[in-house]
């Protein structure tokens, strides 16, 4: 037996979710498409489950009673559930990784239903092949980029991060301390008209665009399939392009 062979890291998607959105309350449980499609959260879970290299899908929500319905919906959609701090999301992620014995975490959020399993899988493969602690993708539409993080890096950040935004937004500490972590930006190429789309869900107009996409294309559509739809309906980006993203 060759004892020099390293064990394969256990990679899991951890989906950040809560009901308490001020701009669009309960957005993660909205149907997509209307009137009776899967929930936004179910789409994220299903796409994570379809990603090559991911062996566990965890929905990390809070211990608040208002998130009981979200935890139940996550379990019904096939995810396991971890419940932790409402505001210390960094600790929630780190604790979820420990609870489910994840060596590597793919960070997703429950308001991004168009995340593409193909590109998430490429990011995981790049992360593992290059022995990185933290990988951030770039070049994809807003709401479809992802982060891949080693549990050891999460644990370091959880032990040392002091600022509120570092704990609420999970990864700022890793980006601010390149001397501590092996980090890389993994840039992926898409047609410009696709890469400039806004595919996250914060406002009613975001929901309107996603409704159009999920009505016009198969439920498991890829980002590349959007190119043909944009050729046919070049005005689609105008539905929500005026929305401003708040960056951590």
TrEMBL record:
Transmembrane segments: none annotated. This is Spore coat polysaccharide biosynthesis protein SpsF. InterPro entries: Cytidylyl_trans, Nucleotide-diphossugar_trans. It holds the Pfam family CTP_transf_3. It comes from Hymenobacter koreensis.
């Amino acid at each position: 037996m060759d004892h020099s062979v390293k064990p394969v890291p256990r990679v899991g998607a951890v989906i950040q979710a809560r009901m308490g959105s001020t701009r669009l309350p309960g957005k993660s449980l909205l149907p997509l498409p209307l009137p009776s499609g899967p929930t936004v959260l179910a789409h994220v879970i299903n796409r994570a489950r379809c990603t090559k290299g991911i062996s566990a899908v965890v929905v990390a929500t809070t211990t608040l009673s208002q998130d009981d319905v979200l935890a139940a919906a996550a379990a019904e959609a096939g995810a396991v559930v971890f419940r932790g701090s409402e505001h210390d999301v960094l600790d929630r992620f780190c604790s979820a990784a420990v609870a489910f014995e994840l060596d590597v975490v793919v960070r997703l959020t429950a308001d991004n239903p168009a995340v593409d399993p193909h590109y998430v899988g490429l990011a995981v493969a790049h992360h593992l092949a290059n022995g990185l602690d933290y990988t951030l993708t770039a070049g994809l539409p807003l709401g479809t980029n992802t982060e891949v993080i080693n549990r050891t890096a999460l644990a370091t950040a959880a032990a040392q991060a002091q600022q509120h935004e570092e704990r609420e937004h999970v990864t700022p500490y890793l980006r601010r301390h390149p001397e501590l972590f092996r980090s890389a930006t993994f840039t992926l190429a898409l047609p410009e008209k696709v890469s400039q789309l806004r595919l996250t869900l914060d406002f009613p107009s975001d929901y309107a665009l996603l409704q159009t996409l999920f009505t016009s294309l198969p439920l498991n559509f890829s980002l590349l399939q959007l190119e043909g739809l944009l050729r046919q309906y070049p005005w689609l980006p105008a539905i929500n392009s005026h929305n401003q993203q708040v960056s951590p």
